[in-house]
Amino acid sequence: MFKKNPNIVTRVIDEETILLPIVRTASEMNCIYTLNKSAARVWELINGKRTLKEIKARIKEEFSGTQEEIDKKFKDLISELDKIHALKLEPKSKIGTKG
Description:
Blueprint (H helix, E strand, L loop, with lengths): L1 E3 L3 E6 L2 E6 L11 E3 L1 H9 L6 H11 L4 H17 L3 E3 L10
Antiparallel strand pairs: 1-5, 2-3, 3-4
């Protein structure tokens, strides 16, 4: 499961979702990311509790497209969010393990 990186600020401006990395100085800022409606919904659903499979199922219910199209776009989005360090892998629960 993934959760949002707390060093990424999300803002919705004029119905557009923007991801902005938190930086110390303006010289460190090199990108502002904008999300389309379906990508913004995926971002909204990422909470460290839902699996990617659960999120993708919700997207398939809420948006139109073939399964192949949604699968590809979902995979590409998660890959891109990971690439820009917008996601953090949530450690698996250690329930039932010793140590």
